[in-house]
Structures are given as structure tokens and as C-alpha cells.
Amino acid sequence: MLDLSLFAALGLGSLPLFARGALSLFVMKCFKTLHRTRLEVFDGDSLALAEARKRINSEFSQNKNETDPDKIADMLKVAEDVNKLLRETVVQGVVKEDNKIELKITKDTILLDTPPFPGTKR
Questions:
Q1: CA 25 to CA 39: how far, in whole Å?
Q2: What mean pLDDT comes out for the span 35-43?
Q3: DSSP string, 83-107
Q4: Residue 16 burial (10 A CB sphere; 0-12, 13-18, 19+)
Q5: Between vectors from CA 91 to CA 51 and to CA 115, what angle results, nearest 5°?
Q6: What predicted TM-score, i.e. pTM, was given to this entire model?
Q7: If you average pLDDT over residues 9-36, what whole number do you get?
Q8: Integer CA distances (angstroms), 68 to 1, 52, 88, in order
């Protein structure tokens, strides 16, 4: 998603003005990416969509006045990790008739080959 190697190579403690502007662009891109992920992962679940929206907005607004490039880079890394975690591990389940649950698996969901429970058919 975001390549922070440029900022690491520049020495984040002394970013020139143009690089600080670029860092702001990375922050906005990350913010938008998290919201797009939220819309895809929680599609059809209005409560989860609203709660995820509140949490993303809250985290970014709490840190909107941060000026230390090292801290900003660390927070961007956390946001990237959260985005990856949401895309790869969150699975929605919808209860169907006969108490069966239909899982909404996305193209990004990591599927592990796990053995079935004893006494069940695959």
C-alpha cells in the first residue's frame, strides 16, 4: 500500500518541506484506503460500517496535530497493518435457514487448509 522506505532513507527527523507535504499525502491516502477497506469488508452490515467509520475517524483526528515524522511513520505502519488484517482475516457470517451460516469470503481472505472436526464430512 504505502512505501515508507523513501522517508526512512531521508532520515525522518529532518524532513524538508516538500517531504512533509508528501507525508501528508501518505496520511490522506492511508485514511481513504482504510475507509475503502471498511466499505468492502463490512458490506451490508450497517452497525459494523458505522463503528469502523467512527474508529478510523477517531484515531486520525486524535493524531491530526502530530508533527514528529517518526511517530507519523509509525502510525502509518500500524494503519497499514490494520488494513491488511481487516482484508485478510475478517469474514462476515449470515445466518440462513436451518441454523446454517453463510460466510462472505473475499478475494483477499486468507484461507487455511484446516482438518475437519472429527465425525464431520468435508
A1: 21
A2: 94
A3: HHHHHHH--EEEE-GGG-EEEE--T
A4: exposed
A5: 150
A6: 0.72
A7: 73
A8: 22, 26, 30
